[in-house]
């Protein structure tokens, strides 16, 4: 084992950032990626004179390291990880490594659903209020890359359970846990309690001066908190009862007698009320004023593919929610609309239990378009409830058929409940193709109107 030698496994955004930070701090750095490294990341590594390899893991080189910084996407059961563990080499995540080199206050946000929206909104509220703040984790640039200069007073960091698994001393000033629903259980031996423990890694090092914002209507969250040793300040968020931060109708009641109507914001649905109340509370904790928060809520634009309005055709709204890759996300989407829905769903099923949304589907969905190579589970779940059910593998056909089923003031909702890899590269590709198909159809309709 070579003292002061760091090997980075995986040369994506986080891995490249970790390599650059390690080099800047004087480590002997080696980067290994079993896949292909993007040209842009190669250029950064070459410019920093960092040795790297791709398409292979050279075990002798890797196993001589004193620290391994692992990409979150590499599972613990991977052969190279098991060999590192056998040699008792320390294995950490990029965020764990980066956080040890900054004195900035970190707002860390996790949850099965909603974390990207909440992270982006929290960052937006701080930035618009004039705070010195960086955006990192699953969104924005690598935290490690930003810590090289370390010019921010705050970092807002979106964290997955995989990233939390790689932390040891990581301690945010504000931790946000939005919800816990079964997801990625293949990485946790199909044991939900392991996944819950992973999420609560967020607060394991926090002390009495730190703040924890959490969704108090979630039984798994409450039970996990009861079993934790957290001693800091608790900020519950609820949509069913009066907690410190709660939703009453469409009004968000935040501590300090602040009331914000959801109509004054750019986000809709009860799930986004949870996200907004969490972001508002985080912003208030670090000192953002009520006036600045209200202004920021009005100017916020969410990331694409999350209940994203695309266009209106013939008085029918088309909404892109391609990021909804599990049933719980679809439940939130269905709850966001009072209109009748034409629902486009399907793809690679992740073990979905459609009974969780059966009541909502019965009440709101007038037609279901199954977009996938194997729609058996969707079809069997809903064929008795929905008379109009169509199967297709073509996104353009899905969009055109949806418009045919719709009447004025209906909503066409792409909210797949499934992964995208049967027909698309990823959820982004699926959402982009949906938007393209909708806009092409809109242009066609408008051309026909002009001709008439």
Automatic annotation (TrEMBL):
Superkingdom assignment: Bacteria
Residue ranges of domain Mur ligase central in the record: 109-282
Reaction(s) catalysed by this chain's protein: UDP-N-acetyl-alpha-D-muramoyl-L-alanine + D-glutamate + ATP = UDP-N-acetyl-alpha-D-muramoyl-L-alanyl-D-glutamate + ADP + phosphate + H(+)
A molecular-function term among this protein's GO annotations: ATP binding
Enzyme's top EC category: ligase
Major localization listed first in the record, in broad terms: cytoplasm
Keywords tagged on the record: ATP-binding, Cell cycle, Cell division, Cell shape, Cell wall biogenesis/degradation, Cytoplasm, Ligase, Nucleotide-binding, Peptidoglycan synthesis
Record-linked Gene3D superfamilies: Mur ligase, C-terminal domain, Mur-like, catalytic domain, NAD(P)-binding Rossmann-like Domain
Keyword check for Flavoprotein: no
Keyword Glycosyltransferase (UniProt): no
Cellular component terms per the entry's GO annotation: cytoplasm
Annotated localization: Cytoplasm
Pfam families associated with the record: Mur_ligase_C, Mur_ligase_M, MurD-like_N
Pathway(s) served: Cell wall biogenesis; peptidoglycan biosynthesis
PROSITE patterns, sorted: FOLYLPOLYGLU_SYNT_1
Domain Mur ligase C-terminal: 305-418
Role according to the record: Cell wall formation. Catalyzes the addition of glutamate to the nucleotide precursor UDP-N-acetylmuramoyl-L-alanine (UMA).
Recorded family membership: Belongs to the MurCDEF family.
PANTHER family: UDP-N-ACETYLMURAMOYLALANINE--D-GLUTAMATE LIGASE
Protein name, per record: UDP-N-acetylmuramoylalanine--D-glutamate ligase
Organism listed in the record: Fulvivirga sediminis
């Amino acid at each position: 084992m070579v003292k002061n030698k760091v090997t980075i496994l995986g040369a994506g955004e986080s891995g490249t950032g970790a390599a650059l930070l390690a080099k800047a701090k004087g480590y002997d750095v080696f980067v290994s990626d079993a896949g292909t490294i993007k040209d842009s990341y190669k250029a950064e590594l070459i410019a920093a004179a960092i040795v790297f390899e791709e398409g292979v893991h050279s075990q002798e080189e890797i196993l001589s390291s004193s620290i391994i910084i692992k990409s979150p996407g590499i599972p613990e059961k991977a052969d190279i990880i098991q060999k590192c563990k056998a040699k008792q080499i320390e294995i950490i995540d990029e965020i764990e490594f980066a956080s040890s080199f900054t004195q900035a206050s970190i707002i860390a946000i996790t949850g099965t659903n909603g974390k990207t929206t909440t992270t982006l909104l929290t960052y937006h509220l701080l930035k618009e209020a004039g705070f010195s703040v960086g955006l990192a984790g699953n969104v924005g640039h690598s935290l490690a890359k930003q810590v090289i200069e370390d010019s921010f007073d705050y970092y807002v960091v979106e964290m997955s359970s995989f990233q939390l698994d790689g932390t040891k001393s990581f301690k945010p000033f504000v931790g946000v846990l939005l919800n816990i629903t079964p997801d990625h259980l293949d990485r946790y031996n199909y044991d939900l309690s392991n996944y819950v423990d992973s999420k609560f890694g967020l607060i394991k090092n926090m002390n009495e001066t730190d703040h924890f914002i959490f969704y108090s209507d979630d039984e798994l969250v409450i039970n996990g908190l009861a079993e934790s040793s957290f001693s800091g300040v608790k900020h519950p968020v609820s949509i069913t009862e009066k907690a410190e931060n709660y939703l009453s109708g469409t009004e968000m009641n935040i501590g300090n007698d602040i009331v914000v109507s959801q109509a004054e914001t750019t986000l809709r649905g009860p799930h986004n009320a949870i996200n907004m109340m969490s972001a508002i509370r985080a912003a208030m904790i670090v000192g953002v004023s009520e006036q600045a928060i209200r202004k920021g809520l009005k100017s916020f634009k969410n990331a694409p593919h999350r209940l994203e309005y695309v266009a209106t055709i013939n008085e029918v709204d088309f909404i892109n929610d391609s990021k909804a890759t599990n049933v719980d996300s679809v439940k939130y989407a269905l709850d966001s609309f009072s209109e009748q829905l034409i629902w486009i769903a399907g793809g690679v099923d992740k073990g979905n239990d459609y009974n969780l949304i059966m009541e909502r589907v019965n009440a709101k969905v007038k037609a279901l378009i199954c977009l996938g190579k194997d729609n058996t589970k969707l079809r069997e779940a809903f064929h008795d409830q929905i008379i109009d059910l169509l199967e297709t593998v073509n996104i353009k056909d899905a969009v055109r058929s949806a418009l045919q089923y719709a009447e004025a003031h209906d909503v066409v909702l792409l909210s797949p409940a499934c992964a995208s890899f049967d027909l698309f590269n990823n959820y982004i590709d699926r959402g982009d193709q949906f938007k393209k198909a909708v806009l092409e159809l809109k242009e066609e309709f408008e051309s026909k109107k002009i001709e008439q």
